[in-house]
Amino acid sequence: MTTVAAYAAPAAKAPLERMTIERRAVGEKDVLIDIAFVGICHSDIHQVREGWGKAIFPMVPGHEIAGVVSQTGAGVTRFEVGDRVGVGCMVDSCRECTNCRAGLEQYCAEGPVWTYNAVGKDGKPTDGGYSQKIVVDENYVVRIPQALSLDVAAPLLCAGITTYSPLRHWNAGPGKKVAVVGLGGLGHMAVKIAHALGADVTVLSQSLSKRDDGLRMGADHYYATSAPATFENLAGSFDVILNTVSAPLDFAAYFSLLRTDGTMVNLGLPEEAAQLELQSLFGGRRSMSSSGIGGIAETQEMLDFCADHAVGAEIELIGADGINEAYERVLASDVRYRFVIDVATI
Known about the structure:
This protein is α/β, with parallel strands linked by helices. The protein is built from ten helices and 17 strands. The strands form four sheets. Strands 3, 4, 5, 8, 9, 16 and 17 form a seven-stranded mixed β-sheet that branches. The protein starts with a strand and ends with a strand.
């Protein structure tokens, strides 16, 4: 076992603090990763504050992990020492169910083993990437292409794949009109990826304050949802709407923006229960769906795609001593567009 420094929440809603944790010994199929950068996801805040239910403490968050392999197990075939790699939201799954065999490990019938706030197959709680090192089975590690710097690549391991997967599944591309609700950590990646896929991209945001950023990232249009005329003028416009915000919405208003056979895909997970009037889905064969992250193969596909199209996250690099302040700024929507921790400061 290896003792490493980490930042953890000692209890629900408590500020994160520096402490030491134990990483397991490197097994036959494991890789030891020296973490260079880790992104701060809104999911980290939800879980530290038990917004999604009872959690495991002390908790080391972080599932947007980028670093370098420093040791490999005797049976590892996919990676070598010195490889640039990433770890996302999961570190294991049953590997035997229909979904796992189909490369959809994120929908494992038994539930994936999440990177943190979960219990691994060894019966011990998992600790995430706000730490100096992590040990992960090679089958749940992806390669980061040389064209992507590790700091801007880190958020791709969650924000990138969470938006890439539904855009691919619902065939975003030339001739398709995609709307992105919210221009935050997820939303800005959705805009960049949808644009790179060739779709016509519209941002739907509460105000026009980020309009210049959205257009620079690849949006073709930008509208304020606070303006009633927006919903009137855009009625029946979109093939796909990606909802990236973790807050209640007037779903009926957004469903009215869908074309026949259009789909609204929810990516954010609000802590509050959502209200939905089924009548608003009738007419036009509209659908409401959801999407998680992607499987390991699709995550690698996403990284390669982003490298080929020069797509990276827009980040604000912080030291570990700024994590608690960053959490407050995320809650205040005061970040453009993803905080990334320089792990050398832990």
